[in-house]
């Protein structure tokens, strides 16, 4: 049964004007409250690799760290009990010189970061400020 025989059906209209007004207000609010941050860039001057070798080499202490966490100081195995005990072993390896020796860390590529940090901490406790890491150059 169709009770609306004589009436035409009106098509619904969507009024976009209020929607545009709301979007414009939201846009103005977002633009007014946005803060623009500029991140500072790090400016680093990298050293050149073509420098001449120093004429007077300081006394060096070679510390090797194996992949399984064993330590070797100047070719002699050393146990890491604590950073303080390892610092005493570094001082013994340096001898009685008053000069600040350079600690060269030869760490295996598979050695843990903690093993290398242990050596760095022991060198700090022993008051050795010169620390370097040995690397392997790739053949061309």
From TrEMBL:
Gene Ontology CC terms: plasma membrane
Membrane topology label: Single-pass membrane protein; Single-pass type II membrane protein
InterPro entries: ExbD
Segments traversing the membrane: 16-36
One BP term from GO: protein transport
Organism for this UniProt entry: Chitinilyticum piscinae
Subcellular location field: Cell membrane
Keywords, ordered alphabetically: Cell membrane, Membrane, Protein transport, Transmembrane, Transmembrane helix, Transport
Pfam families, per database record: ExbD
Location (main, coarse): membrane
Family stated for the protein in its record: Belongs to the ExbD/TolR family.
Protein name according to UniProt: Biopolymer transporter ExbD
Top-level lineage group: Bacteria
Keyword Manganese: no
Gene Ontology molecular-function annotations: transmembrane transporter activity
